[in-house]
Amino acid sequence: MPVIYYEHARRDQMKVALTFDDGPNPPRTDQVIEILNAKNARGTFFVLGKWAERWPQALERIVRNGHVVGNHSYAHHAHVGDFDRAEAAIGNVIGRPTQFLRAHYFNFFTCTNSPIAMSKSMKIVDADVNPADWNKTAPQAIIDATLNHPRLAGGSVIDLHDSSETDDDALRLSRCVPMIEALPAIIDGLHARGFQLVGLDEMEFVDPLEWTPDERGLYASPEMREIVSRR
What we know:
Number of domains: 1
Number of helices: 9
Shape: globular
Helix content: 25-40%
Strand content: 15-25%
Radius of gyration: 16 Å
Distance between the termini: 29 Å
Order of helices and strands: EEHEHHEHEHEHEHHEEH
CATH architecture: Alpha-Beta Barrel
Number of strands: 9
CATH topology: TIM Barrel
């Protein structure tokens, strides 16, 4: 059975989605929420089940502030599709199922053995703007990689990170600091171009893509294979 996923929503609408992977990660996720709220922007947080269990109050704050929660696996292990376990952990906190799922490392193979991932009620969302913020230490580099991305347009889904899968607390807290420092300028730059920053639940997704394994490997593109090899 193929995996159906989406990279973007309707191009004729000036809506863009800021998405944040690998949290919740207090206090960093709280800082992201404060910036979003101050600048009249909604975000979508693709969270890990293990962090939902560890910091349920941080996950509750995402929901309480009007942002969207998505499923990003339980433990973020490269070839393990533990989305069902993640869904249980997330649901125990927020009291409802998620609507959106992102395959960790954009490895769609991990979806194939998960009833949750493959269910008709779940929309698998990739991204068409990936500034690789996790691999940059200068905020301006993240700003430039986002706002100057060649695919940035109406309907774009931007992939940022408010956390990391690592159990190293110091690294998890420090890695996302450049993104947080860049975020106000990213939002201002998007607003200046006339984009409305919305949650994934406000977007109409189009142009579905179909993933099937091939001889090149499990990942969706050569670019993503390179990203995974560097992490």
